[in-house]
Design goal:
The structure is a homodimer.
Chain A (H helix, E strand, L loop, with lengths): L2 H8 L3 H8 L7 H14 L5 H8 L4 E8 L2 H4 L4 H15 L3 E8 L4 H11 L4 E4 L7 H8 L4 E4 L9 E5 L1 H14 L5 E6 L4 H17 L8 E4 L3 H12 L7 E4 L3 H13 L8 E6 L12 E4 L2 H14 L5 H4 L3 E4 L2 E3 L12
Parallel strand pairs in A: 1-2, 1-3, 3-4, 4-5, 5-11, 6-7, 6-8, 8-9, 9-10
Antiparallel strand pairs in A: 10-12
Helix pairs in contact in A: 1-2, 6-13, 7-8, 9-10, 11-12
Chain A binds a DNA duplex through helix 2 and helix 4.
Chain lengths: 343, 343
DNA sequence: GGTCGTCTCGTAAACGTTTACGAAAGTTGT
DNA sequence: ACAACTTTCGTAAACGTTTACGAGACGACC
């Protein structure tokens, strides 16, 4: 069923049918109604290839995720919930969402080249943003509008939304300092992902505010995964001069840290206080419940949808590129206790 | 950069360029080389809309998932790993994969109508298959090839791949019977999802083989989620005549069961033996480690890719619709012990 | 040299849509 | 009654490909 068959069936021209279906002005109300009625009756839906060929736009947003990455192996439901909320918003605006999985073994630049050249999406949302991100330079050269989840230091004409890693780290330091901790370790990612830099900056700022000297041996880099958390827990618990608090920039490492502590006979909270990053249903099953930060994933997903569609607006003021930092709220937990008298 | 510009740059016709790029016969080797060289130099990639409009095929496979569903909230990495392997295979065959998220609040039939009519994919992979699945009837009517992950009783011309839920349940019964258990409870999903029926069938078959009468009060239906598992654990632990073994048709409920047992003072293994479904990295953090079944997710993903592309083969023998059951292998765990002397 | 076949390539139509343009009909104003 | 404007619609071109068809060049063969 194409538009010509529909037009013939109504004995009018395809031009009029198209105008009616697209709510273009200058079509008689009576005709409009007839067309709409016939379209639903005959189950007509515009062919996407024909439409986007003519319009040069596909009404589709691409969401680029890295797969095969340890963080995803960890059973992280983060993207599922965010994508769902984003998809909901986009569907309201008559946009489709496709998820473009780039395997971590692939060359992300080549992957993007294909996506760009094939013209399958009108705009992209990038994730796993790096501090120096070659994909951003590449996208900036192409004319494809895009935004990133996570800041980058690579310049380019794009919008971004980032979680307030710096604020979370700073607040985490404040919370443990308030309880009397002075020897505070931190687990950071072992790659160039941007959040690591912001988390570290907040950590350093918090220490400085409390007048605590930086001890480089307490800054530990591990993969963002359960295994990485396990390694982190082993390292921290095995230190000659054990820290009394441990801050985590990712919640997926928390389970690993707890497991390592269990093996090493270290009790979270009593021996070493823990502040995790994002609150997560998984944490129901960690004992004692880790202190963490709450993030509204639905709101984040909707905001992503709004931001990416803004890029496509003809209104210059709306489509202006901008950055946004999403705050998180502190959630106390049993894993947070004053340091033991002995320490 | 379109094909005309490329042709003009080479001073040959667009027809020849297209033939060269698509490896069609009848183009001079020298010309072929020139075209390929110029294409890479100028970064030419065929526009997808133009190509699929002409060819009537998009070289894209759609993967339909339900989002907003409690099972996904549970931090299940199942789809991530499977999708990744599938994507890898499809990319080798020059096919793209798009994930089509259907929100559980949406009408899945309407969602599919749009997908079908817009002609955005050449074939579909469906998940969360129901025993009676209206989507299958709908897809069968449309001419869009599709396959399902999970069997359905709804007839239609399609291929399917299913995990061996029946075999797993039967084996689970055998394992606990071998240890002396006679009072065996089972947790089933509370909706019409097909796997529940097969798991129950295997459970009943196992009981029959062991000569154990069916006790309907031991067949408990809960949502497939951590909360559902929690409820299941509470119910089982609170029974007047406690069962000595509990079989789970889904691993996401396991954590909830453990948590409920902890609250009720029931010790997994010693008081009630547990057999979970699929082995899962999360289980590293459950104590005692649950007995479960191992599934090669990579192999499953590749197999899905092969099966869905087979649907599109011009070779009738290859494209013949077929079903396939994937076996899982038993993994012993500390959660499996003989019943206590008292029972 | 004429006929035939093969190799290579150019021409043009087709896929399904949107939209600029102009034509026809109707309305208003003088 | 005529001009000018508005409303409504039909016509045809365009988007970027692929491919059926035919034409030209060339060699082989009788």
């Amino acid at each position: 069923m194409n538009i010509r068959r529909l037009a013939d069936h109504l004995n009018i021209s395809i031009g009029t049918v198209s105008r009616a279906l697209n709510n273009r002005p200058g079509v008689h109300p009576e005709t409009l109604e007839k067309v709409l009625k016939a379209a639903t009756e005959l189950g007509y839906v515009a062919n996407q290839s024909g439409r986007s060929l003519r319009r040069g736009a596909t009404n589709t947003i691409g969401f680029v995720i890295e797969t095969g990455h340890p963080a995803h192996q960890a059973g992280d439901q983060f993207f599922y919930v965010v994508l769902d909320a984003m998809n909901l918003y986009l569907a309201e605006q008559r946009y489709d969402l496709v998820i473009l999985p780039c395997h971590s073994a692939d060359d992300p630049v080549e992957f993007l080249s294909r996506v760009i050249a094939r013209g399958i999406v009108d705009a992209l949302v990038m994730t796993a943003t790096r501090r120096i991100d070659h994909r951003i330079a590449q996208l900036a050269k192409s004319k494809l509008p895009f935004m990133t989840l996570g800041r980058s230091e690579t310049p380019g004409n794009y919008s971004w939304i980032d979680l307030d890693f710096e604020g979370v780290a700073r607040r985490s330091v404040q919370e443990v300092v308030k309880l009397g901790h002075r020897r505070i370790a931190v687990g950071l990612p072992d790659n160039d992902v941007a959040l690591g830099y912001h988390y570290k900056a907040g950590y350093l700022k918090g220490l400085a505010e409390a007048g605590i000297a930086v001890d480089e041996s307490l800054i530990i880099r591990v993969p963002t995964s359960e295994m990485g958390g396990f390694s982190l827990g082993k390292q921290v618990a095995g230190m000659a001069e054990q820290p009394t608090a441990l801050l985590l920039c990712s919640e997926v490492t928390a389970a690993g840290v707890y497991a390592a502590f269990g093996e090493m006979g270290v009790e979270a909270g009593r021996d070493i206080s823990i502040v995790a990053f994002r609150e997560n249903p998984l944490m129901r099953f960690l004992n004692p419940a880790p202190a963490c930060f709450r993030l509204d994933l639905d709101a984040l997903g909707t905001r992503l949808g709004e931001t990416v569609l803004d890029l496509l607006s003809p209104d210059e003021e709306v489509s202006r590129r901008r950055g946004e930092i999403v705050p998180l709220s502190f959630v106390p937990g049993k894993s947070l206790q004053p340091p033991r008298a002995g320490s």
